[in-house]
Amino acid sequence: MNIFEIAHRLNVLATATAGFKDLQLIRSKLKGLNHPRTYRIFSKATIFGKDDDYAFHDGGRSELQFNIGVENTGEKEIFRYGLAFPLSRERPTIRSSWGLSVRIGSLAALVN
């Protein structure tokens, strides 16, 4: 199964899951927009990699990011998923305005 098929299945599942079906609508309201760019969690615009092997949720470059990926270990393919924080130097205002270092520390303590 490739990342496009996985993303499609997750989009279908998200429409039936209370915690995710309104993610893009909630995001757009928080940003003061009238409607989301897309209602899908993952889209063709957010699938990347040399072999299209990873994706993040649509809008995820500038906020807490849901991401998925397929990695080949040589012996088998492994599906991975996770949450990521935008720590890129190209977006320093986001890092400072969110106080991400404190939030990341809190999340790390919770996970450990």
Features:
alpha+beta, 19% strand, single chain, 4 strands, 112 residues, 4 helices, four-stranded antiparallel β-sheet
Structure description:
- The structure is a single chain.
- With 112 residues, this protein is an alpha+beta fold.
- It has one domain (3-87).
- Helices cover 36% and strands 19% of the residues.
- The chain has helices at residues 3-15, 23-30, 92-98, 100-111, and strands spanning 47-48, 54-56, 65-72, 77-84.
- Strands 1-2-3-4 form a 4-stranded antiparallel β-sheet, with helices on one face.
- A hairpin with a 5-residue loop joins strand 1 and strand 2.
- The longest helix is centred in the first third of the chain and has 13 residues, at 3-15.
- The protein is globular.
- 12% of the residues are buried.
Q: Can you tell me the overall shape?
A: globular
Residues in β-strands, percent: 15-25%
Helix percentage = 25-40%
Largest sheet: 4 strands, antiparallel
Which stretches are poorly predicted, pLDDT < 50 over at least 5 residues?
91-95
Number of spatially distinct domains: 1
Strand order, main sheet: write it out: 1-2-3-4
Radius of gyration: 15 Å
What is the number of helical segments per DSSP (H or I, 4+ residues)?
Answer: 4
Q: In total, how many beta strands? A: 4
Query: For this entry, what is the oligomeric state of its chains?
Result: single chain
**SSE-based structural type:** alpha+beta
Report the span from N to C terminus: 32 Å
N-to-C order of helices and strands = HHEEEEHH
* Overall pLDDT metric: 79
